[in-house]
């Protein structure tokens, strides 16, 4: 057994920040080293959500850091205070002899809380404290806190919708963490719509529908992200309808998120639309400049980045799309600073962002910006683009959207198809080829695409 030397934690975290900055969080300073025994370094983590996150995502990086700091071949195990107490009791009971850690033992195999669902991995980053409130999300944030205070009674169902990367998932994670902190024994199920559908189809094939229904209809809180993917899945909609009713009648809380409002989700049964709209429907808008500045500062604090006052303002002025783009910009700035061995400055931030944007053929537009430009140019509605309609006045703009999304964004064919009403990648490939061929043979089509691209470039350079 080896006791931990003073300053060990600081050395461990310092190594991680220099070599694995992408995983580092300010709360790493709260991790408590215990001891090294039988080649195992135990690190105590008090927050359950942080513990599971570290166990799932950060083991190899912490092991590498510990080996470099100690100069010994060892492995890291993250444990809860309860795990640590059991280990100490076992060691004391053996007179200080024996293994402190059977392989993969206490940290992972101690009795799990009833709420823990293997489909769910809550992010410690997404809490109410780290959520930046602004004019575009104030209602959604206030309603989320009301749901936490009175689950099943305040707003049921609670439906959040808005564009990609605007903070919907952040709010869902924050709600879940706060509910579990207030009521640790609560049976909470947090799952994506795609995972729900996969589990449903697997249950049907295996003849285990009773188990499937018990899993979801006995929850105290059911949280489903991206519920718009129910579109066109009639059998799954039927099952979810009955799951929704069962929970609602028992006054169990239902929380849903979507890229579109209930009435704008294409091919969704009217009875589901009416139920989704029966509680509170809250829209999250794109953040204004002041909110974007606050978001950049909050993300920098989370990653323990020291930013001069002018950098958040520059980033917020440069990127006005969504939170994911802001976070991506901050990651690029941090990477350039580390590669250059320089502190972050305004000049360095300009170098990082201008270099990235120019490598993407100018200030690359977001998927949301592409859709807005196309719908404005052709005077069509977003709901029509996402629908099954195949008339030329809708199909052509939809194909242009897919073509431009493939050309100007980093989204995969599957991701683009999923955004446009759950279409598969072959549909996107066909759309891209169609526009390319039409643009080559039809000057009018080429002119339209050029004008839309010009509009996108002008807007992204503002």
Structure description:
With 462 residues, this protein is of the alpha/beta class. It has four domains: 2-109, GMP Synthetase, Chain A, domain 3 (2-Layer Sandwich), CATH 3.30.300; 138-284, Rossmann fold (3-Layer(aba) Sandwich); 289-359, Helicase, Ruva Protein, domain 3 (Orthogonal Bundle), CATH 1.10.8; 367-460, Chromosomal Replication Initiator Protein Dnaa, Chain: A (Orthogonal Bundle). The protein has 21 helices and nine strands. The protein has helices spanning 8-19, 48-57, 59-70, 81-93, 106-109, 138-149, 168-182, 193-206, 209-217, 234-249, 270-276, 289-302, 310-318, 323-340, 346-359, 367-378, 382-386, 392-408, 413-419, 425-441, 443-460; strands at 2-3, 32-37, 40-44, 75-79, 158-162, 188-192, 221-225, 253-258, 280-284. It has a five-stranded parallel β-sheet with strand order 6-7-8-5-9, with helices on both faces. A hairpin with a 2-residue loop joins strand 2 (32-37) and strand 3 (40-44). Helix 12 packs across helix 13, helix 13 (310-318) packs parallel to helix 15 and helix 18 packs across helix 20. The longest helix has 18 residues, at 323-340. Residues 100-116 and 357-362 have low confidence and may be disordered.
